[in-house]
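Re: beginner question about structure tokens

> Can someone show what the tokenized structure looks like for a real chain? I only ever see the sequence side.

Sure, here's an example I had lying around. Input first:
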Amino acid sequence: MATLQITDQFALSYNIELADDSPLAKAGIFHLACLDHALKDEFTKPLDQRSLREFSFGVQASTPSVSLGSATLNAGGGACGKVRIIRSSETNLFPGDNFAPKIPISSDQCWIGLSLELSVNAGAQAGADGFGISFEESNMLGLTTYKLIEAQAGRFPTLLDGLRTTLDGIYLASTPGALRGLPPGTVCANELSGAVTFTGYYQIPVSVNPLASADLPFNYTIAVQPQATVELSGSIALCGDLILRAYKVDASTLKLGIYKKKGSTLTAGFTAGGGMEVEHGTSDLAAALLSVAFPRVNVEASGITGGNAEALNAALKGCIDRSLAISMNISCSAAVTNEAAVVYRIALDSGDAAQTSAALRSALGGDWTLLSQLPNAQRFRNIVTDSKEYQHSLALNLFGILNAASIDGYLQSSTILCDEFGHISVINQSDSGRIRVAAVPYAADPNKLRAALAQDFLVTATYAVVGSEVSPAFTAKQTYLFYDVKASRQEMRDQVLLGEALGLIGASDKSFWDTLLAASSTFPHAYVSAAAQYGNRDLLSLFLGSGGQPRSPIELEQAGRTAMIALLDPDDPYAQERLAVLRDDAAWNAMDSTGNVGAFRTIPALRQLPANALADVAADWTAVRWWADTMLRVAPQLASLLAFVRTVSADGFSTNPEFLKRTRQFQNILGALVKKTHAAFVGGWGMALVSSLAGPDAVRSMSISWGSSRKHYGSGSGSDAGAAGQSAPPLVLTASQPVSGAIMEEGPAVS
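And the corresponding structure tokens:
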């Protein structure tokens, strides 16, 4: 028998005899020193008659290290651990996660969890097996065993006896055989920074956004699908602070899951596989992604070859990685509890035993692909492969495609840039400075990109109005995206106000949000996406009012002011001065008359404003005046051009000299518009403003995710599931064997 000594800092010393073949004995651990509690009085009390919930300890070992498969565990050099007692008052062993094992605790039960924090080194394979999470080099490993302790004849054992049972029962579920032999009343958990991997064919949703530039010619012959999927083969690795849990539900049923550690952030990595060559004839990511918009595209013919192709593919891979990471964090984003990312239930007594063992061995090495394909494994959750989980699609922005005469010519004159949110932009090389990061190949600046998208949306909208005479199906799309790892209450309130301004969040949902915002100060991994698709009639209404005439200056300014008012929180003390001025016609007219923000202090209504508030008011006025002045320049010219277009046959546009003359004049106006687009239009104000003036048939949608919850609002639905404006197609994994359907018997994590 091996002896383990337990001491505290107050002269306590107990010796516990352990079996020679126990993991602690094999590891040479002989001393646990309590660091933060006096244990003498606690040790002799029954488990239900003591207040102590947990205590920490240091570890001493006679052997500096022990081998476990391809890894080496080190119990010396400051190793430590913790003991936790979980009683029936906590209801479940793992509360707070709908996908965690449901292990209720009855009044005659409690659990003791013993955790050891050890350093671990990967073996010569540059990766270690046996933990369910792959890693390289050195890392910190948390090994926890939870043991069920039951009362006998109505009496619980003492803490000392319960601790002896737990210490002697520490279990390492590091092999398929160990998982099969996991004793009843035992849960094993491994906590490690690393990755879990899935390999297969993926259909990743792509949102295609065709845009016009201010250049000639008008071209209405190239059409693209607004939403599609790109099929890629390869591996997706989910990386971060992860926890493996193994639990035998009964003698023949194993529940195995990977959990994201509370408050942490995941990353993702995609590695293209050879199967993409079989499916697409190329392993080129650029070809695969561009083929979504342009079937049978020839990337090499556009000049992307050699080192340029390698650099571009690296940039595209990074773009896919970041898009996947955002989606995974949206799906698994709890901040106050460990949250399931991947959970399977395996029937150990069915299926092929060798196949099952191979799948378990692979999963313990960090590759969960075989387990996801195992016929006798049921999927509770897998945020990598579950179709319902994918919330963030890749965006493919095609700047200037609506001006192109041919696809080949368009690609040959363009470059491809990627940003941190998964946006892939194809833009003319001479115009790429609008969004490019200086001196970084194939990188787009997200702020510059947002501005360019706002600018070119307005250009596209004007083209769509003119193009309605040629192609009635012509539309323009406006989008909005917000993502923050830890959004504040005010930031989330601003997103809700946008939903209200778009007519998507109604009175009943406003009450829900008011209650939630009052109760929560931060929102982990807050993600908001909104989109509005405008048809011809909607866009005509944007530019032209009743009778097809340009809107008046008063009407345009009032629309801008109203949209700003809708997006300002009336309970925000910093918004009070802005709201007061936006609602004050006399003050606004005085600013219009003055026309010089430097002289606004002379206006009586503004004279007492603090400097910061006056600067905010001046910025509001500047943005609204930019909007009104722009529309006053564009709308009359657009109305005139539209009237002329109706007199020209569709096949005469390219040769009609008067049409070409008028369009060149209009091009100059649009060029000025692009150069002077106000920064305020780039955010939610631009979308709220356009939405308020566009026709009622525009298709609007909005999705808001935070923590483990999400809300979706369709066009005019004001509810979780709108019929219109559906999100992009989901991520799908096609495996070589059928994947068992996901089962939600424990309830989905959706509010």
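Each token stands for a local structural state, so reading them left to right follows the chain. Residues 275-283, 716-751 have pLDDT under 50 and may be disordered.
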